[in-house]
User: Which sequence fits this backbone?
């Protein structure tokens, strides 16, 4: 089960989430953006990096590693990659911080003596999700991180709680993002279930699902297009006379933006020739 991709989705939606679990945070934490970068010579792929705003130059860069499987050489790799990237981009940054997120201390690398000065300093932050506190007392975004560590028997009840809480505390569309992330997390936990089964398990209504939201949004768009088309087709005969079936079909094929533009332009039309010219110019632009 690859939980790191879930965490990176969480960070993409809420970059400040990293700073919610750290004790010492920068004053401009809300201006950081989350990204992934490649370091050449040799090439490393750093999946999680928080970059300070470009207006703050130099700034502090944060490297983030989510580790749910034991890796006996994790610190060797993380410190090598982060320091090499820092070296290659020294002009942009004046300091670096490293954050490593574990589900528990039992996953941490055993041999840490070579890195004792780093691990005991203030630049390396080791986060153990099972020590952050009760999932129901945590901020929703942090609670989503902890949910990835909860066993299956407890996960359903906690996920339902977070779903209800997010609906009460967080406005849409951010709430819909949380619903989708909750569903994704639970699908990782219950790999034998379909998305529909997971949604039923969480008691998610049809109106809350991503598919419904996409269909609803598309329906609203089509509704606006239909209204705009009807409006334009009512006005055009008053300005240029009756439309031929061919012209009517061309108007009906226009997008919402094009219909809105035509609605403004037709106020200056005096004949069908004006409409023909407008449509011809539109075709040339495409």
Assistant:
């Amino acid at each position: 089960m690859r939980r790191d991709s879930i965490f990176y989705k969480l960070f993409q939606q809420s970059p400040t989430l990293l700073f919610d679990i750290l004790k010492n945070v920068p004053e401009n934490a809300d201006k950081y953006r989350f990204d992934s970068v490649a370091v050449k010579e040799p090439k490393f792929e750093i999946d999680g990096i928080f970059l300070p705003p470009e207006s703050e130059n130099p700034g502090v860069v944060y490297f983030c590693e989510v580790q749910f499987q034991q890796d006996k050489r994790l610190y060797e790799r993380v410190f090598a990659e982060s320091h090499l990237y820092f070296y290659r981009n020294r002009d942009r940054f004046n300091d670096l911080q490293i954050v490593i997120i574990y589900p528990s201390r039992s996953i941490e690398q055993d041999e840490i003596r070579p890195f004792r000065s780093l691990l005991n300093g203030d630049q390396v932050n080791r986060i153990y999700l099972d020590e952050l506190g009760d999932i129901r007392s945590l901020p929703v975004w942090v609670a989503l991180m902890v949910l990835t560590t909860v066993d299956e028997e407890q996960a359903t009840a906690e996920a339902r709680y977070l779903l209800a809480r997010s609906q009460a505390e967080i406005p849409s569309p951010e709430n819909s993002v949380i619903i989708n992330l909750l569903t994704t997390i639970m699908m990782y936990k219950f790999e034998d279930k379909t998305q529909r089964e997971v949604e039923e398990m969480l008691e998610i209504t049809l109106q809350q699902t991503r598919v419904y939201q996409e269909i609803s949004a598309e329906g609203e768009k089509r509704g606006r297009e239909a209204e705009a088309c009807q409006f334009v087709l009512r006005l055009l005969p008053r300005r240029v006379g009756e439309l031929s079936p061919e012209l009517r079909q061309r108007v009906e094929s226009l997008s919402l933006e094009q219909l809105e533009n035509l609605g403004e332009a037709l106020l200056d039309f005096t004949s069908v020739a004006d409409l023909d010219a407008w449509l011809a110019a539109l075709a040339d632009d495409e």
Q: What stands out?
A: The two ends are 47 Å apart (CA to CA). The chain has twelve helices and five strands. The chain has a mean pLDDT of 85. The longest strand covers residues 93-102.
